[in-house]
Fold these 2 entries.
Entry 1:
Amino acid sequence: MGELFNGFLAVFTLSNLGAIFLGIAIGIILGAIPGIGASAALAIFLPLTLSMPVESAILFLIAIYAAAEYGGSISAIIINAPGTGAAAATILDGYPMAQKGQPGKALGTSLVSSVSGGTISAIILATLAPPLALFGLKFGPSEMFALALCGIAIIASLTSDNVIKGWISAMLGLLLATVGIDPFVGFGRYTFDMPSLMSGISEIPVMIGLFALAEGFRMLENIKTNGDEAGFKGIEPGEGITFKEFLQLKFTILRSGIIGSIIGAVPGVGASVASFIAYDVAKRSSKTPGEFGKGHIEGVSAPEAANNALVGGALVPALSLGIPGSASVAILMGALIMHGLTPGPFLLRDSPNLVYLIFGGYFVGNFVLLLLGLLGIKAVLQFLKIPVNILAPLIIAVTFLGAYLYGNSYSDMVVMFIFGVVGWIFKKVNIPVVPLVIALILGDMVERNLLSALLISNGDPLVFVTRPISAILLIAAVLTFVLSMKKKQGKTLKNA
């Protein structure tokens, strides 16, 4: 405990606090831009840390990482465009809240939930790092396949009143995930000899198109129908989440923070899975599950607490075992290596002061995020006062900019435009787009781990049911599908 306390004290130097404040500010801004995300933000600023002391450099990058995960919710709530993949879950209730005239409450809920989830994760990181890392290592290819399949089943079954349409969307996402070079054979699939498709269809341009560009199209359509009044309702200056509402969310935040921390400790899973699992658990635990998807405050709180808690969870295997829990953490590990340190079991033995400084810096960083986030909300609410006939073209322009910035490629802009049209059509026929996005994100994880598990077991499919964790996850996926179909059948009989 003495070393942990000293780690906290070491945070409060001018250089370390300055690094945290600067990293949080940069992370919020870049995270809110669709197409950037935490990994890109870290990659942009990684070279700049070479001239910084190792302590300040690591705290700076961790601050960017955590703040970018929160920043993704800003664009998700305001313009229906997730700045990060994890923020796709926040759209489900965050954007409807904004449309109902409660953008301040949605943004405030996202902020306090992110800070609370991150704080929970920081405590777990400091106290339970080794056990969590060992749990994460229990996930082999069969468990990873089952986890991804379970995530897709949950989202396909719960994001629409029509389960069949949800599964159609998910199957389309899995089909799109097969575009590109086969990971095992090396042949191109559905590329039509187009070099831009050899690496597959990137999920970021797809998300920007399905969510933001499609929303821009709908805004333009509404202007034509209803005039300039279409769009956001008036905003009261002091509107936001109340302390009473925050207290009512305490169990949702605690539960989601734990979920995010645990899933973060599983290398390669990602924040999207944590966010949607937390959302599903919150919906099942809620007294008013029917309100989810319509602007429910718990539907904003759960995914935001989970995806920020995942930051601390993802640091667990990196610091304890030298295994990156995500692409963003891999960049953080690269920063340690650049400064002559080796992430893993020997880091705690050889540089305990640095490790405990990371724990303390991550904890303090969450409160800096709260401070700067509150200032940011006021600025964002001013943005909403822009007339919708100006806002709609602005959103469309930002989508094209975001798609280009993602890969510096015009082909990404074309993909984004195509899926913008697809998203607009899906809205017309009431097909949910979230299952498509999640299936596209997890499709590669499904395929690679399915084939890896079969190769390891010499083609024996029983490998998925003889390992306890994968068997439990597969049973959960099947039960989710069966129960959702029974629920749909019950509604059909009731309406008959």
Entry 2:
Amino acid sequence: MYKITLEASELALQEVLQEDPLLFRKYKTTKGLQRGNVSFDDRAYIKIALRKDTPEE
């Protein structure tokens, strides 16, 4: 479900929540979408870019 951008990840999450709000078919998890919420109550998105420096000669 994680995508290259936050926007794409949010879109994918909304699709999952619309298709499987109890989260036991498409994206299995321990708790589904709670009544009154529009998404999970505990989530984070962190994007880290790693770069391997090449030694100067």
